[in-house]
Amino acid sequence: MQEKRTQQLQSFCQGLGIHMHDLELLDMALTHTSYAHEAKQYPKPHHNERIEFLGDSVLGVTVADFLYRHFPDMPEGRMTRLRA
Predict the structure, then answer these.
(1) CA 64 to CA 34: how far, in whole Å?
(2) pTM to 2 decimal places
(3) Would you say 45 and 39 are in contact if contact means Cβ atoms under 8 Å apart?
(4) How do residues 44-64 score in pLDDT, each as one tens digit?
């Protein structure tokens, strides 16, 4: 990763009041697919689609668990619609 990008990411983290151990992972998480495909640099930057897939799955499980525990009488079909 270029020094300029590293500095940008560190500044971003400072602004949020957080510390990231893996700036490469943060860079990937913040890189949209369209940018990665159009980038002139080689090798092409990694993009966030795989991380997004994982995050969507984790969020789905978390919401499903919340609905299941907090609404014991809610029918499955309604829980499915709410989770979506």
Answers:
(1) 31
(2) 0.64
(3) yes
(4) 678 889 999 999 999 999 999
